[in-house]
Write a structure and sequence with these properties.
Distance between the termini: 48 Å
Shape: extended
CATH superfamily of the largest domain: MazG-like
Strand content: under 5%
Order of helices and strands: HHHH
Number of domains: 2
Structural class: mainly alpha
Number of helices: 4
Oligomer: single chain
CATH architecture of the largest domain: Orthogonal Bundle
Low-confidence stretches: none
């Protein structure tokens, strides 16, 4: 089992136990994804606090371990959403690789979607 497969398996196990123990079974996918998105936004806000985004406040020393923990929390919710949407680790990898390829094409001006290229043609 590769690392991404392991992450998906661990999250699925946790998610099933959480839903059972907290009586969260039967929640429609739309509602579950809304809840998970809100939780992820909360974790993103915690990450922002860790990286001194408040320019109006004296910065604190960065705590790399805390930053990594917040990133891990974000990943938990993201993988949970993938699972709920019926996406496997293999699906995520395939879709990510395809999108990554397209992102490079956009930056190089080789995509059908225009406006992303680093050095757009003059007058364009």
């Amino acid at each position: 089992m590769d690392k991404l497969d392991e992450i998906f398996a661990l999250q699925l196990s946790f998610q099933e136990k959480l839903k059972k123990d907290r009586n969260l079974t039967g929640i429609p996918m739309e509602e579950w994804l809304q809840k998970q998105t809100l939780a992820m936004v909360s974790e993103l806000a915690e990450l922002l606090e860790e990286v001194n985004f408040k320019w109006w406040k004296n910065p604190h020393e960065l705590n790399r371990a805390q930053i990594q923990e917040e990133l891990s929390d974000i990943l938990h919710f993201f993988v949970s959403m993938c699972i709920e949407a019926g996406m496997s680790a293999e699906d995520l990898h395939r879709i990510y690789v395809g999108k990554n390829r397209e992102n490079f094409r956009r930056q190089q001006g080789l995509s059908e979607k225009k406006g992303y290229e680093v050095n757009p043609p003059a007058g364009g």
